[in-house]
Description:
By secondary structure, this protein is mostly helical. Helices cover 54% and strands 3% of the residues. Helix 2 crosses helix 9. It starts with a helix and ends in a 9-residue tail after the last helix.
Amino acid sequence: MGGFELRWVVRVTVVLMMVPKILGWGKEGHYVICKIAEEYLTEDALAAVRELLPDQTEGDLAAVCSWADEVKHHYPYYRWSSPLHYVDTPDFLCNYKYCRDCHDGHRHKDRCVTGAIYNYSMQLSQGYYDLNSEKYNLTEALMFLSHFVGDVHQPLHVGFTGDVGGNTIIVRWYRRKTNLHHVWDTMIIESALKTYYKSDLTLMIQALLRNITDEWSDDVPSWENCKKMVCPDPYASESVRLACKFAYRNATPGSTLGDDYFLSRLPVVEKRLAQSGIRLAEVLNRIFSKQPFAAQ
């Protein structure tokens, strides 16, 4: 067995080990995003996605939508991927610029969530139709891309450098001590599930799909307004503006966030989940179109 083949077997084995654990780690937001995306995939894109997914997923992209988080935390081999989940911006400027902001802690360029989206969309678009190419691991590229499109829509994944995207802002979510980043990653969604959706993720997904076709139908064309293969920079700009307007506001260290914060921020979270799903579908539809997309 060649070196590339051995690495491929090892990595796919890691994938298969992680699949059954995904929802147990509380990654409901990513699951919702990929379920929405699956509803909007073309036949060509759906066939390509199913071909690339590990067999154990049974063709369900949502089953591995949190894979990038799981391997980052639990497998030393993947620790290099940690900076790819976010892009921090200068404190209080409330804007994002790729050239200024997309780097890791060692100032290595392009190592951030928007850079990762460009990279993995390129790998998929170049590698999928090249039958002789062994340059890229397309299964990993698909799973990374699907996850990172979700991450860039979470406002505090494009938060301030000084508080590490809200991670160092300690607050209480009702009675629970936590940090502001975790509130936006998990706790708003968990509270919404308990309050409005009978703790049933399927009900939440159905409600968001109804909103896409009804309440948000006039907005959806603007969500899809991308003339390139992928457009992560506008998504990051949206996120940092929402972080300033909603996430950071009235969430100072030591504060207790309750009903006022929850009820006013939940619509933002739900719309970002929907936008992520629609945009992920659009990206995959472009990548896996049998008509090659024009070079960027």
